[in-house]
Structures are given as structure tokens and as C-alpha cells.
Amino acid sequence: MALSIRPPSVLTVEPSGFGFWTGYFFAVNCVVGAGFLSLPWAYENGGWLFCLLYQIFMTIFSLILSHMVFEIMGRVEVLTRIQELGKDVPQLDFKLLIFGKSKGEQLIPITDQEPKITSRRTDLSEIARLLFGEHFGRLYLVILYIYQQGIQVSYASIFSTSFASNIPLGNLDTCDVYEEAGFYNNCKWKYWIYLLIFGGFMVYLTLKGMEEQVWFQSCMTFMRFLVMSLVIITSIYDIATNNSNESDNRNNIEMPPLIAFEHLGSAIPIVLVAMAFQNSIPTIVQHVTDKETNLRKIANASTLTAFGFYMLLGMLVPVAIDDVPSMSTLSYRNYTAGHERHNRPWWTYIIEYIVVIFPALDVFSSFPIQAITLADNLCTRYYGNIPKFHMPKRGVRFFRLLVVIPPLIIAFLEYNLGFILEWTGLLGILLIPAAIPMMHLAARRLVDGESVHDINIVPPMLCVILSVAHVFIAILVVVLNILESTK
């Protein structure tokens, strides 16, 4: 006899929400983050053929991961309702997870309730807890916290360092904080002033929440498209005319190597993490209306948009610009379009400031999304996976401050975070491409039935292979980075 699971104890439709375009803007701002700045460097150093093929693979894999998250959320909704009835969700042992149930065995009673995504927030850390138990859920949340906080520290550093080096404070000169020695110097306090300005805005935007910054996120999406388009167009012009980007010299138009094994340890995580945004999906999903129709469209459109721009940036910029810096937009600090530097046209200054300053402004939209996503995971851990509008506002504000203040403090103490982020960025491999396929497999083992969000092209054993492969990729990247650092 089928067990009739009662309707969810929360509203299935939030009073207001995002349509396709607003959801698309937020998703693009998650996918196309600061990662696009380093992709040209990855193509130049890791090899254009390897990076192109790996990016094509990661784009396809990213689409699969997004649809996996949708299916997981629908099936976990059923598990949550079972728990609301006072019943326990059985834990999967290794044999059952890999090989499935025996004939006639039923872990979860058959329900007449279709797996369905509601407005209930089901963050990945809560999914990990429901599927694999308390210990795994805590471990996943700890790794997620370290990973997200590291990203937010880098955003704070990017903003403050970029403005200190490009925008003068009144009559004071600009400076490069990396060239000054000591904890306190003539440049550090300028860096701190911009960090204070940045922190004030980030606290405000994070506390306001995603639904209160639709216009801002939409504007930042337009700016992303503008900056990437300017870099692509100017690169095509440089290649066609053999011009240097920052002088009237001729440029050597040369393709990067096909593959450079010695730099793969840096190139792999850049390409991989640039396409990984699935940890932000639950936060966006909560606000999207008509989920059955819009979610797939949003995931497909945002991922393919990112791939199109990323591919063009990776293939063109290393050819157009010699010795691309790791933050590729820095090669536009003295943009000349092939003219003499002291006699360049007025419009080159406009391009220079748009391309150079935007990465600093870009983190204005990325930082609050990352902070809200992490705060949502902490709120879910504390209050349970109920909609945000059912949670105490004071508690939500507390957790948002808990994730927005520490990165600002760390950025105040330390701005040179390249080495730290190179290693903490590896955690993203474990959180997304390694963990999500196993979550998808576990959700299918526990909950039968079909829904509009199901992705049926990934057999169970492929989920295992993908997860194990990315664990080995993370280990390989660590080994390659160690070998490169010892040379």
C-alpha cells in the first residue's frame, strides 16, 4: 500500500520570485565571475588545445551537474516530508550506494508524491547530511565554508588593490601595494580605505538579500558582457593588424603551445572552477517562479553563454597579447590600440578604464551572492531546510554577518592571497564535480519515481567514475603544483 506523503508544511510558491531573465542574470553572475580574468593565462601556459578540449568537457559536465542538482533537490524534498512524518531516512552503506537495492527490497516506502522542487531551501550541505548522515554533512559544510570564505577574501583583495593602484584618493597618487614592504606603509592605508568602502557596501548588499538587488545584478551582467566583448574585439583587431596592446610596436602573432605539462597544475583548476557554480543553484532556485519551465532554461543558457565567451577569450587573448598576466585585464592598463602611448586617441582611455576597473566593480555583484549562498547553508543547518521567509529575520541577519565580516578582516591583515587561493581553490573540485554525482546516485537509490527534473543520461556507474576521477584530479593538481614549485 502506497504511503501518502502529506503536502509540504511550507508554501510551494513564494509570494514573488524571479522569471527567466532575472534568474539568468543571477546565474550568469555566478558562472562568469572573476574566473574569466585568468582563463587567457591558463590557455597560454597550459596549452590552447588541452584547455579548449578540457573546457568543452567541463561545459558539458557543468550542464549535467546543474540538472543533477535539480533532480537531487526534487528527491530530497520527498525525504524531508518523510522526516516531517516522524520517520527516519535510512542511511546508505557502500554496497547499496554502488550496486543498488536487491530485487524486492524497498528502503523508502513507495509514495504517491512526485519528486518536486518547492520554495523550501535545500542547500548542498543539508543534502549531504540527509543522504550520507550527520558527519558527512558537517564535513561538507566545513569544506564549503573554507572554500567560500577564501573566494570572498580574494574578492575583497581584488577590489582594494585595483582601486589603490588605479584610482587616486583626492590629490594623492596611486600606488602598488605589492611593491611596498612591511605591514604598514604609505600604500597600505590607501588599500585599507578602499577595503573599508568595499566592506560597507558588501555588508549592506548581503543583508538586503538577493531579491532586493535585481537591478544591480542585471546591470553587472551587462557590464560583464561589455568588458568581455571589448577584450575580444580589441584582441581580434590586434591580431588582424599585428599591433601591440600597449604601444606602437609590432606584436608577434604566435599561438600558445598545444599542451604544456609543467603548467597543467595551475591550468586545470582555473578551467574547472570557472565553470563550477552549482553550489549557488539552491539559493537561486528558491527565488525562481515556474521552476519546471525556467530552471533548465536558466542553467542551459547561462552555461552556454559562459562557454562562448570563455572560449573566445582563451583562444584570442594569448595570441593578441604577449605574456598575458594572470589577471588578463591588467594588460590594458596603458591600452593604445597600436598608437604611440603619448599620442593615443581619447577612446583608448575609455576602453582602458572600463576593462581595468571593472574586475574591481565585478566583485560587487559576486561577493554578496557568494556570501548569501554560504549564509543560506548555515541557516539551513541551524533552522532546517525551510524557506527563508519562514526563518527569523534576526537569525538570517546574524548568519549573513557571520560570513561577510571574517573575509574583510582577513583581507585587512593579508592581501597577497595567491598561494592560499591556489590551494583552497582545489576544495571546489571536491565540493562540486566530485560530490554532486555521488549525491545524485544516493538520491536515486533512496527515492523512486520520476519528475520533470530527472536527468536520465547518466547511468549509476558513470556517477561513481566521475566522482572518483575528480578526486584523483584534485590529487594530481596538488602533485603537479608541488613539482612546479620545486623547480
UniProtKB/TrEMBL annotation:
Transmembrane domains' residue ranges = 21-41, 47-65, 191-207, 214-237, 257-277, 298-321, 346-364, 398-417, 423-443, 455-483
Question: What GO cellular component entries does it have?
Answer: membrane
| Domain annotation Amino acid transporter transmembrane: ranges | 19-72, 119-478
The entry's keywords: Membrane, Transmembrane, Transmembrane helix
Q: Where in the cell is it found?
A: Membrane
Keyword Transmembrane helix applies: yes
Q: What is this protein called in UniProt?
A: Amino acid transporter transmembrane domain-containing protein
